[in-house]
């Protein structure tokens, strides 16, 4: 190894060490020495320290179904968004078998099998396609704005529009071309079973999270409103990122 290369490596290692020396103390929790711990306090394993979010969409105007109440509870932090409940695939699944099934989740077992093949690499761990799926789920939902919703413009969000209306051409969506193409293939395959692009995009993201190491098993809810074509022109003006 040449002296110049060795010196560069030493410089990089020193820089990393310096950064870690500043970053690690900031990441450590500082305890109050005067705080008295409650011996009866039981920590919630599902509490990640984040604050509960507000109710959005039609949940703000009244909850009429048990599923709606569950989603509201998750948003408010009173119910976990994770699940370890086992599931049993239907005996006759697939596109044909699920059309005659009363199990509303029937077709999603087939979609799950397809995604597992697409999201796992040779080592059995999640690959780049899985990571794209997580990003796609966020980008499709990221255009929703609380400010616009409060002003009566409650549209956008997790509605599948990124795939359906070629929002892949926007610069912030670069690098998602492969996963968008996969979403189109799966939607064409399963839309006859009632699978919408809005639900498919978010299911792909949740499936990818579980596929990756230590990813939580996030509960997935089906029934999102798809992006309506008549809103497309209006959305071109509003389609931007909001905090």
Structure notes:
By secondary structure, the protein is an all-alpha fold. The protein is 47% helix and 0% strand. It contains 10 helices and no strands. The protein has helices spanning 3-27, 66-76, 94-99, 106-119, 128-141, 146-150, 161-164, 177-190, 197-211, 232-238. Helix 4 packs across helix 9 and helix 8 crosses helix 9. The radius of gyration is 22 Å and the shape is globular. The protein starts with a helix and ends in a 5-residue tail after the last helix. Mean pLDDT is 77; it is low at 1-29 and 229-243.
Q: Tell me, what's the shape?
A: globular
**What structural category do the secondary elements indicate?**
mainly alpha
Strand percentage lies at under 5%
Helix content: 40-55%
Low-confidence stretches: 1-29, 229-243
Supply the CATH architecture of one domain. Orthogonal Bundle
Mean pLDDT: 77
CATH topology of one domain: Peroxidase, domain 1
So how many helices? 10
Radius of gyration: 22 Å
Largest beta-sheet details:
none
Distance between the termini: 48 Å
Helix and strand sequence: HHHHHHHHHH
Q: Just give the CATH class of one domain.
A: Mainly Alpha
How many DSSP-defined strands? 0
How would you briefly describe this protein structure?
The protein is mostly helical and 243 residues long.
Blueprint (SSEs and pairs):
Elements: H1 3-27, H2 66-76, H3 94-99, H4 106-119, H5 128-141, H6 146-150, H7 161-164, H8 177-190, H9 197-211, H10 232-238
Helix pairs in contact: 4-9, 5-9, 8-9
């Amino acid at each position: 190894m040449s002296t110049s290369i060795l010196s560069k490596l030493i410089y990089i290692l020193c820089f990393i060490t310096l950064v870690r020396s500043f970053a690690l103390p900031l990441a450590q929790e500082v305890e109050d020495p005067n705080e008295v711990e409650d011996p009866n306090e039981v920590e919630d394993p599902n509490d990640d320290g984040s604050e509960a979010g507000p109710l959005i969409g039609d949940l703000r105007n009244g909850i009429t179904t048990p599923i709606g109440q569950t989603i509201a509870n998750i948003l408010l932090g009173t119910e976990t968004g994770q699940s370890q409940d086992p599931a049993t695939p239907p005996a006759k699944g697939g596109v044909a078998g699920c059309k005659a099934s009363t199990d509303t989740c029937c077709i999603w077992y087939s979609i799950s099998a397809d995604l597992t093949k697409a999201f796992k690499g040779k080592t059995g761990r999640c690959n780049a396609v899985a990571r794209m799926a997580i990003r796609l789920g966020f980008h499709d939902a990221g255009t929703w704005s609380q400010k616009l919703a409060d002003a009566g413009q409650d549209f956008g969000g997790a509605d599948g529009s990124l795939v359906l209306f070629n929002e892949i051409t926007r610069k912030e969506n670069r690098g998602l071309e492969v996963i968008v193409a996969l979403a189109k293939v799966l939607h064409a395959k399963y839309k006859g079973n009632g699978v919408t692009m809005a639900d498919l995009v978010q299911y792909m993201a949740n499936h990818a999270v579980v596929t990756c190491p230590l990813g939580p098993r996030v509960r997935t809810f089906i029934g999102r409103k798809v992006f309506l074509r008549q809103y497309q022109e209006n959305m071109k003006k509003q389609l931007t990122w909001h905090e």
